[in-house]
Amino acid sequence: MKYLEKIQGLLPLGYIYLIILGLLKEALLFYPLGINILKYSSITDILISPISDMVANPILILVIVSVVLLFFLFQTFLVRYSHKGWVRKILISYKMNPELNKQELRKAMIPVFIILAGFELLALFIGLGIGHGEKIKKKLDSQTLQPNYILTSDSGEPSPIHLIDINSAYYFYVKKGEKQIKIAPVGSIETLEVIPKK
């Protein structure tokens, strides 16, 4: 029961960490494009950013779950074979006492497991932010961004655009054939129609 209470106590810290990762990812995505995303984000955008990233990209959820599962299986493997010489060397390298019984060894490995999972998330979100931002910047410079939406503004004129991102207050997009990123308030957009992929 105490173990469950400790986990419940760590959940808010975990969510704060996810929020920081979401902010970092967004900042790194928009930095090469010359946009300070924090100026255009509300507190709601910041709170929901990491969850929306994971829900919007099922591969991201799969990668996170599989890596956490692999860490867990590796931890279980180390505990099960803690009597073997090579496993003892690994445990000693992580400054753990290989003489502990299996239950104590599991408890001692929890902080290492949390640090490894946290580092995996940090690397993933930073990589996604930098990679996506640089990819958009290169395509923007070479004008190879393909339109993915047809945007109709409040003036009634439809335009093919490449939608970079959207939050609760703004659309970030590039019109076909242009190099400048436009930032439009949500209220100025009448409709947004998806262009089907060929």
Automatic annotation (TrEMBL):
Keywords: Membrane, Transmembrane, Transmembrane helix
Spans traversing the lipid bilayer: 15-38, 59-78, 108-130
Domain of life: Bacteria
Designated name of the protein: Uncharacterized protein
Lineage: Bacteria, Pseudomonadati, Bacteroidota, Flavobacteriia, Flavobacteriales
